[in-house]
Amino acid sequence: MITLIVFYFFIGVIALSSLALFFTKNVIHNAAYLLFSLLSVAGLFVLSGADFLAITQVMVYIGGVLVLLLFGVMYTKNSIDHEMDSGSKRTFIGFLFGAVLFGILAFGILEEDLDRDYTVNNEGITSNLGISFMTDQIFAFELTAILLLVVLIGAVFVAGKADKTIDNQ
């Protein structure tokens, strides 16, 4: 029973923050609503026993994408004070797209056999994945680490070059 209450809580937070995200014009407020929505999705992953997906959700989307969005907004100084322009044509297209997506999802849910047992045995999934990364997939894991290091060094180099250009003007 408590699982069902927590599930509906996360679904409610996702629905409300997504609606607020859609109707709010301030970019910083949009980032906050996106944070609530992404955290709730991570909570749903934890609730369903997908610990690795929950951690990935927090690290990649909240730790990466959301922080990158906020840095982008802060880096372009004047965009914080301005509100986004959302024309009526874009709003209509958004509602139309949302209605079509809702119809497709509703059709898929209604056609699904809900009487089937959906329990998943997830003992040791995360630990087995970690062992696989460090044994079978070590080359790809290390190559990804080197690639991320090169990207980080490149970003620092580009940011330093941009600061020198601004100082010279």
TrEMBL record:
Catalytic activity as recorded in UniProt: a quinone + NADH + 5 H(+)(in) = a quinol + NAD(+) + 4 H(+)(out)
EC number, UniProt record: 7.1.1.-
GO cellular component terms given for this protein: plasma membrane
Superkingdom per UniProt: Bacteria
InterPro entries according to UniProt: NADH_UbQ/plastoQ_OxRdtase_su6, Nuo/plastoQ_OxRdtase_6_NuoJ
Protein location: Cell membrane
Membrane topology: Multi-pass membrane protein
Keyword terms: Cell membrane, Membrane, NAD, Quinone, Transmembrane, Transmembrane helix, Ubiquinone
Enzyme class of the recorded protein, top EC level: translocase
GO terms for MF: NADH dehydrogenase (ubiquinone) activity; quinone binding
TM ranges: 6-24, 31-48, 54-71, 92-110, 138-159
Protein family according to the UniProt entry: Belongs to the complex I subunit 6 family.
PANTHER family named among the record's database cross-references: NADH-UBIQUINONE OXIDOREDUCTASE CHAIN 6
Function: NDH-1 shuttles electrons from NADH, via FMN and iron-sulfur (Fe-S) centers, to quinones in the respiratory chain. Couples the redox reaction to proton translocation (for every two electrons transferred, four hydrogen ions are translocated across the cytoplasmic membrane), and thus conserves the redox energy in a proton gradient.
Name recorded for this polypeptide: NADH-quinone oxidoreductase subunit J
Record organism: Flammeovirga aprica JL-4
